[in-house]
Design goal:
By secondary structure, the chain is of the alpha+beta class. The chain has a domain of 103 residues. It is 66% helix and 15% strand. Helix 1 packs antiparallel against helix 3 and helix 7 crosses helix 8.
Length: 338
């Protein structure tokens, strides 16, 4: 810009001089005045003077013609207009740079350039992020679609399995003196998908006079028997390593208690079963038996085997460990177990 200013200043002075030399359209310039002076001078010269100054007039006229050509070239030089356009463009750019510096708080052009470089990096990151975001949105939509399809398939499988489970568990409950009870599986669509699916699952129990969630309507003994029936109904891969039952025989006797023992025995072949019971018929089915006794403030848990186990079974049958009939019955139970 500085070199343009110098060029335009120099050309401006030359144009001013050239304009004065050539003159305007209404009045003559220095060239015209000089030509008039030469004509007047030539008319006033005598022969001797004309001979003396003739060549000088001719040389002066030639130089004047050169000056006229040069002056017209100066006035018609297009570089001046181009330089003025270039200067205007540069001044506009400088004005824009000053505005940008004020806008971003830059003290120098270097700071402004550094800011622009950083802004360009941020813009590039944002554009890439926008593309990545769109890709993630598409993947998310696809994942939602797949999850919804999986949830629907899971719900359909659950309805199929639920009907079979209801029938199987209810059949086992009939063997456990709960023949008038029906085990049910309630599937409620939540309208949204959770990690466990789109259904809320609840086990129910009904007997013709009441119906409701098992946790609310079943007694402790009934709950243990329902758990036993449920575990017996499950395939091996869904059984836990160990199951614990507490007084599963509550309210049972005779054949029902014996069938309960058989089911526990069957279940123990598939996983470990720990049972707290007062029913001798069920205790006799166990592979190992432990007696729980109080000794003052202490509680002892002792394994009973052989004659001690027969005596413990007899005690559970009659209340005394040395009753001949109870011992005989205990021996039969333990023999049938083997």
């Amino acid at each position: 810009l500085q070199s343009l200013e110098q060029f335009l200043s120099r050309q401006g002075k030359l144009r001013e001089i050239a304009a004065r030399f050539l003159g305007g359209s209404s009045e003559g310039g220095l060239a015209e005045e000089l030509q008039r002076w030469m004509r007047e001078m030539a008319g006033a010269l005598d022969k001797e003077q004309e001979t003396l100054l003739g060549s000088s007039f001719e040389n002066l006229l030639k130089e004047m013609q050169k000056l006229e050509v040069f002056s017209r070239a100066i006035l018609q030089d297009k570089r001046v207009e181009e330089a003025e356009e270039r200067r205007e463009l540069l001044e506009n750019r400088l004005g824009t740079l000053r505005k940008l510096k004020r806008l971003v708080g830059a003290e120098s052009l270097e700071e402004l350039l550094a800011f622009c470089e950083k802004a360009e990096e941020n813009l590039d990151w944002m554009q890439k992020s926008a593309a990545e975001r769109e890709s993630l949105v598409q993947r998310c939509r696809q994942a939602r679609k797949e999850v919804a399809q999986t949830a629907n398939a899971l719900a359909e499988n659950r309805r199929t399995v639920a009907a079979k489970l209801e029938e199987t568990v209810s059949s086992h409950l009939a063997d456990l003196a709960m023949e008038n009870f029906h085990f049910g599986v309630s599937l409620k669509d939540l309208g949204k998908i959770r990690p466990s699916g789109s259904d809320e699952i609840e086990f129910t129990l009904s007997n013709g006079t009441f119906s409701g969630p098992i946790a609310r309507v079943a007694s402790g003994g009934e709950l243990s028997r329902i758990l036993l029936a449920l575990q017996v109904s499950l395939p091996d891969e869904q059984l836990p390593p160990t199951l614990v039952f507490d007084e599963v025989e509550a309210g049972l006797g005779g054949r029902s208690a014996l069938l309960t023992g058989f089911k526990l025995k069957e279940l123990s072949n598939r996983c470990q079963v720990i049972l707290v019971t007062h029913e001798a018929v069920i205790a006799a089915q166990a592979d190992q038996q432990f007696a729980v006794r109080r000794n003052g403030e202490l509680t002892e848990i002792l394994e009973v085997t052989g004659e001690e186990r027969a005596a413990e079974i007899a005690r559970m049958l009659s209340g005394t460990p040395d009753s001949p009939k109870a011992l005989e019955h205990a021996a039969v139970l333990l023999k049938d177990k083997n």
